[in-house]
Amino acid sequence: MTLDYYEVLEVSRDAAGAEIKKSYRKLAIKYHPDKNPGDKKAEERFKLINEAYDVLGKEEKRRIYDQYGKEGLERQGAGFHANSMDDIMDVFNSMFGGGFGGGFSGQGQQRDPSAKYALDFEITLDLPFNEAVFGVEKEITLSYKAPCASCHGTGAKEGKMQPCGYCEGRGQVVMRQGFMTFAQECPKCQGSGQMAQEDCHACHGAGYTTHEQTVKFAVPAGIDTGNRLRVAGYGNENKHGQRGDLYVTFQVEEDEHFVRDGNDIYIVVPVFFTQCILGETITIPSLDGELELHLKEGTRDKEQFVFKGKGVADVHSGRKGHLIAQVKMILPNKITEEQKGMLKAIQESYGVESRPHKSNFESTFERIKGWFKG
Hints:
- The protein has helices spanning 5-8, 17-31, 40-56, 59-76, 85-96, 129-134, 273-278, 337-349, 356-371, and strands at residues 121-127, 136-147, 161-163, 172-177, 180-185, 194-196, 208-219, 228-231, 246-252, 258-261, 264-272, 280-286, 289-295, 304-307, 323-330.
- It starts with a helix and ends with a helix.
- Among the domains are: 1-111, Helix Hairpins, CATH 1.10.287; 258-330, Sandwich (HSP40/DNAj peptide-binding domain), CATH 2.60.260.20; 337-371, no CATH class.
- Strand 12 (280-286) and strand 13 (289-295) form a beta hairpin.
- The strands form six sheets. Strands 10-11-15-14 form a four-stranded mixed beta sheet. The protein has a three-stranded mixed beta sheet with strand order 1-9-8. The protein has a two-stranded antiparallel sheet with strand order 2-7.
- Helix content is 29%, strand content 26%.
- The chain is of the alpha+beta class.
């Protein structure tokens, strides 16, 4: 299962930077090793939280992650580092500098708490092997959400709302953990502080309706399973008519002959045993057409031949990997008496060399005989 940094920090994909930082500070304090001595699970969670914030807290890293996922960061060489001293001191001060009792206050733009859905959403798209390797223009039909026209996205009949009874209209509920007090988003109204007096009949209280749309986008050459592509402006729609983004995660189908490993391609080449012994030049398929494979005399089973630059183009740099052809020696299924005689003659012509087991086990036989003496 792929790790999702947004889930780790418990924020939506359209969360503003201030919201991400606020959630990071809250979770870092909750799972800090000093607050959970001896708790290995809390320690691992704390490390994940810092790793996630190191990416989502930096604009450039977040952009790469949103488009290509964690694999994209690794290919770009954008490693994971400790967070800035300011962020670390924020956590430290909140833990030990009088931050108890009142939760946390966040400044900056945040997602509308009355929204019924996130603006960004993700789909998985199956790609044939050749389309992933060479790139393709795709056209798909998808469903996206837009505010219900009858209730203006509130989910309430005629848009009539009332204060949430669970949080008494505050949008937050207070949670206590030992000697610490935290303010959390109200689970009933999702932080809006309001609830519908009566559900809207048009959307049944959902606050949105679904619409179909055809989307065209280019899939770059070299896309692999797990890669993610951002298609801007094709996400869900908010009350102001603004659209979020669509994220497409790819699942590449396997090929009958080619096996992909990153940017390298492997192909198994069946070769009759006489071709391996005598050597021969044969033609094999590649992504670009045909290649000549020169089998030398005495080619071994599973021996590999590398064709540099004949693999898949890297989705970021365009640099191609290699094609690796692996020999699979084929032995005859049946043999005639005439062929058997010919093979015996060949075997005898090699003399001692044709019976390597004898010289190999001679000392072993003598050693075993000694076990039974006396």
